[in-house]
Amino acid sequence: MSATKIIHSIPSDPLTGAISVPVYQTSTFIQEAPGVNKGFDYARSNNPTRKVLEDVVAQLEAGHSGFAFSTGLAAIDAVLKLLTHGDEIVAVDDIYGGAYRLFTHVYEKLGVKINYVDTTNPDNVANAISSKTKLIWIESPTNPTLKVSDIQEIAKIAKSIGAYLVVDNTFASPIAQQPLKLGADIVIHSGTKYIGGHSDLVAGLVVTKTPELSEKIKFVQNASGGVLGPWDCFLTIRGIETLELRYKKQCENAFAVAAFLVNHPAVQDVYFPGLVTHKNHEIAKRQQNGLFGGIVSFSLKEDTQEAANQFVTSTNYFKLAESLGGVKSLLCHPPQMTHASVPRERRLQAGIKDSLIRLSCGIEDAEDLITDLSKAFAAVKTTRNYVKQ
Ligand SMILES: *Cc1c(COP(=O)(O)O)cnc(C)c1O
């Protein structure tokens, strides 16, 4: 979707002409007579500020309807509520940790079976499905090793058994990838990340392809009630105004950072789908509109937590924090942070080495980010030499 279209999909206020979207901070709406209203009756069911966000997100993802939730996990939870006892999910094996927790520790207890497979090879998906499979759940690219799955191929498999394909599109953003156009049925986002884009809110979004699915999600949204408040809807809309500009700059910075890391003597592996050496580069190139995202992960030659610790505490512009996608660059050490709850064995199997570091590139100047990383490498080296003496 072009920048022009995105910006002009955000309406001005029809009532007053206000160019920015008003924050309708209200719980209820006056009715002329019972059931006679202006399209809004209670703010859990609907709110005019939320409606603008939901409509804009539906357009961003080329879907039928959008739905805004209090967090990304609340959005995921709403989709899982389409299932019932005995249903099965086939899911990407290095799924977001919070989604893993919800799937395994909440839904499995309720009788939903989850089958985790490496979805970068569609054959693994085809082998894992059964007549009970109702959802195929992928992320592309994944966190933190940026594996890319072929959405079109997996959509065909889902269609063949009448299951829904759900794509967590948080990392690619709708700027790089529109999964519904590639055959997916539902897209979810952690709006906390690129869509919000300023590290100032948590939010979740669902976009559905068909009126039938929209009705189902709308029912769950109203029934369970995990909606996004009007002020955070306003901030998310404001974030979307610059989404294209931010995301492209972040991709550019990530490209420059990845090129720097590949040539650095202290670096072992670099994970970035834009590199021709990345396992899934070809499919990423085809599927992601020439944009490879703003996240770069890498491991150190000295593959220890201590070396990684020294690195992540030696940067200036890259701030040590969970989350990603904001205008300020962040870095984290997944084994001790986002993936601390995953046992070491499982982490190593998923390619998450002890020294793996994840960078979320912001919109600073690429030269400054590279200088920052250079200084951190130098700091690690100095400290390590000192320690060894
Ligand atoms: C952060 C994240 C989520 C969860 O979103 P919250 O807003 O933190 O609840 C889900 N999927 C991915 C890929 C994420 O990065």
From TrEMBL:
GO biological process, one term: methionine biosynthetic process
Superkingdom of the organism of origin: Bacteria
SUPFAM superfamilies, A to Z: PLP-dependent transferases
Pfam families (UniProt xref): Cys_Met_Meta_PP (PF01053)
This protein's UniProt keywords: Lyase, Pyridoxal phosphate
Keyword Methyltransferase: no
One GO term describing the cellular component: cytoplasm
UniProt key word Lyase: yes
Gene Ontology molecular-function annotations: cystathionine gamma-lyase activity; cystathionine gamma-synthase activity; pyridoxal phosphate binding
Chain positions with N6-(pyridoxal phosphate)lysine modification: 193
Cofactor dependence: pyridoxal 5'-phosphate
Family: Belongs to the trans-sulfuration enzymes family.
Name of the protein: Cystathionine beta-lyase
